[in-house]
């Protein structure tokens, strides 16, 4: 006997976080938005923040705002991200460059902290940028990459990491949540395994920051990088954050020496002397405009609580699975995301040979998931902005767009 799927209206009515969805900009050209794992929706209050910034901080205070607030903004905002979402004490997180640049800087720093070790370990299903940067650094430094080949419907396991690491391992680079399948790695267990091999680990938090409670300090994480335009709703191109455990900050030397990372920013000295603490991981002038919107989302995360956000993430993804099983599985759609709560993030990936064409049709009809080669649609569920009604509307639209003859 099958269990009846609750109605979306019923689930939305009893959702304790339902009121938060009304605080996001409601796009008039969007019927269902399930791509919050790629670009979070803006908050309505952010318009007021931008207006105040333009009129006062930039328009009236002008360059004085650097002394009054902007110079320390990367560190203050980093501490907020660390406290609200990462389980990181103050003084270990900074907002600086793009995700790509932060990955390069902190990968290089982690590798160079282990001289004599010749291998970088990462998985061949990791996000392309992570893989490309590792390949570039390996070419620069004459290192070898040891690849882990995980089950693409699951992800990298502790056992695989133990098998791949050893006395030659300098750095292990892994994603906390797989960008493709949504698999949630065992950060604590894998970090412990890497340390037992005498290496450092860098975690990519792009698909977990703001939606999955993490405990970077408690789990002994060394280095982490994450973007802010997904579940932190910082807007397109908003800068990434980097985390370096306090015990490692003086040991790691990042390779892009810019004036903003110097101990005395305005000394204009002849040689670079790095700042103490996380400022040393800043290179150029901080992208202040790109740091505005995420402050409103951090306010919302603090108000709702990261644990409550995670609970709704489970409920949304459970509902997506139920709808996929009911409406899409009979049409040949396969789920590619683990169903167990402890092994999944906040997006559900489904597969079908027709999904590239289906996605194009959905976008024209204002239903917005995203497509990942070769045949996957990701249903990205951002708990504070996504309703159960949107999930149902999207799944029904996919069903309607699929060929019904098999």
Automatic annotation (TrEMBL):
Its EC number is 3.7.1.3. Its cofactor is pyridoxal 5'-phosphate. Keywords: Hydrolase, Pyridine nucleotide biosynthesis, Pyridoxal phosphate. Belongs to the trans-sulfuration enzymes family. This is Kynureninase. Pathway: Cofactor biosynthesis; NAD(+) biosynthesis; quinolinate from L-kynurenine: step 2/3; Amino-acid degradation; L-kynurenine degradation; L-alanine and anthranilate from L-kynurenine: step 1/1. The keyword Lipid biosynthesis does not apply. It comes from Conyzicola nivalis. InterPro entries: Cys/Met-Metab_PyrdxlP-dep_enz, Kynureninase, PyrdxlP-dep_Trfase, PyrdxlP-dep_Trfase_major, PyrdxlP-dep_Trfase_small. The keyword Transport does not apply. GO terms for molecular function: kynureninase activity.
């Amino acid at each position: 006997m099958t269990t009846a799927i609750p109605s979306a209206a019923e689930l939305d009515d009893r959702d304790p976080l339902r009121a938060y969805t009304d605080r996001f900009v409601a796009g008039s050209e969007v019927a269902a938005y399930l791509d919050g794992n790629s670009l979070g929706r803006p908050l309505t209050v952010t318009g007021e923040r931008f207006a105040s910034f333009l009129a006062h901080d930039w328009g009236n205070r002008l360059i004085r705002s650097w002394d009054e607030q902007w110079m320390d903004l990367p560190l203050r905002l980093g501490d907020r991200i660390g406290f609200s979402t990462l389980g990181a004490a103050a003084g270990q997180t900074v907002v600086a460059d793009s995700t790509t640049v932060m990955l390069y800087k902190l990968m290089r720093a982690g590798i160079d902290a282990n001289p004599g070790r010749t291998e970088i370990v990462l998985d061949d299903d990791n996000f392309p940028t992570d893989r490309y940067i590792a390949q570039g650094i390996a070419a620069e430094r004459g290192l070898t990459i040891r690849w882990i080949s995980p089950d693409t419907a699951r992800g990298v396991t502790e056992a695989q990491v133990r098998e791949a690491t050893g006395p030659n391992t300098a750095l292990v680079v892994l994603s906390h949540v797989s960008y493709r399948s949504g698999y949630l790695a065992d950060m604590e267990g894998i970090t412990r395994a890497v340390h037992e091999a005498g290496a450092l680990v860098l975690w990519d938090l792009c698909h977990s920051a703001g939606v999955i409670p993490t405990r970077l300090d408690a789990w002994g994480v060394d280095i982490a990088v994450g973007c802010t335009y997904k579940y932190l709703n910082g807007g397109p191109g908003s800068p990434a954050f980097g985390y370096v455990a306090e015990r490692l900050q003086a040991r790691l030397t990042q390779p892009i020496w810019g004036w903003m990372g110097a101990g005395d920013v305005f000394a204009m000295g002849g040689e670079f002397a790095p700042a103490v603490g996380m400022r040393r991981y800043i290179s150029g002038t901080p992208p202040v405009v790109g740091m505005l919107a995420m402050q409103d989302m951090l306010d919302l995360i603090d108000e709702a609580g990261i644990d409550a956000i995670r609970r709704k993430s489970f409920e949304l993804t459970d509902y997506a699975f139920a709808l996929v099983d009911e409406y899409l599985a009979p049409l040949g759609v396969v789920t590619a995301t683990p169903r167990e709560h402890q092994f999944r993030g906040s997006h559900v990936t489904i597969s079908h040979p027709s999904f590239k064409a289906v996605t194009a049709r959905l976008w024209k009809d204002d239903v917005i998931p995203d497509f990942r080669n070769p045949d996957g649609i990701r249903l990205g569920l951002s708990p504070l902005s996504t309703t159960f009604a949107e999930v149902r509307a999207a799944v029904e639209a996919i069903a309607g767009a699929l060929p019904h003859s098999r």
